[in-house]
Amino acid sequence: MARDKLEILVVEDEEAIRRGLCDVLVYHGYAPTAVEDGESGLRQGRSAQYALVLLDIMLPGINGFDVCRELREIRPTLPVLMLTARGSEDDILAGFRAGADDYVTKPFSIAELMARIEALLRRSGQLQRENIDPFPFGDWSILPGELRATRDDACVDLTPRELSILGLFFKEAGRIVSRRTLLAEVWGSPDPDALETRSVDMQIAKLRKKLGVGARRGTWIETVRGAGYRYSGH
Ligand code: CA
User: Fold this and answer.
1) pTM to 2 decimal places
2) pLDDT of residue 2
3) Which domains does the chain have, with CATH numbers?
4) Ligand 1 center from residue 26 Cα (angstroms)
């Protein structure tokens, strides 16, 4: 796809990782700008229009959570992808509360990183969306082209919104999906904060009922308190 190079801000204090990230971004056709502390990250984020920010949490001076919170106020629609330590669910939850859109855990694979970046850029309308093929959801088969879910003899109609939610959970199976992400991706709101997250909860409740999936841990769509939802896969 021909396009102008999208600019990405990298805020990371570890030089090897910072350089690695920039090399990968350049290789994939993006224009990275790298800074090594929170103050510089905020200054850059304020002064220039970036397509996305890659934000480390442990930074000298202002940490990544505070940078995220402040950037969120200045640029509500700027996608922020956090870099977190592996296995630190507390950091992930704190990041979502600070307004981050998504996360990758270090050490990350290049494929994982680029998939996260591209998903956020599509979500924010900066990359084009691809078509969605049929996919499984629990014991249902979801047929996007027909707006339907089928299971054995059962068949239910889906609204475009329900289809988007299922597609998002499928793509993010096993990962926490924040309400903010749901609002941005499914409701397509340029300013997700302007919408009540209650509409997300109501929609999820309806969908659980329709497909007969539960709300508790271990069922298909689990509520992660204070953070969002997680599709457990099957
Ligand atoms: Ca760090």
Assistant:
1) 0.66
2) 43
3) 7-123 (3.40.50.2300), 134-231 (1.10.10.10)
4) 21
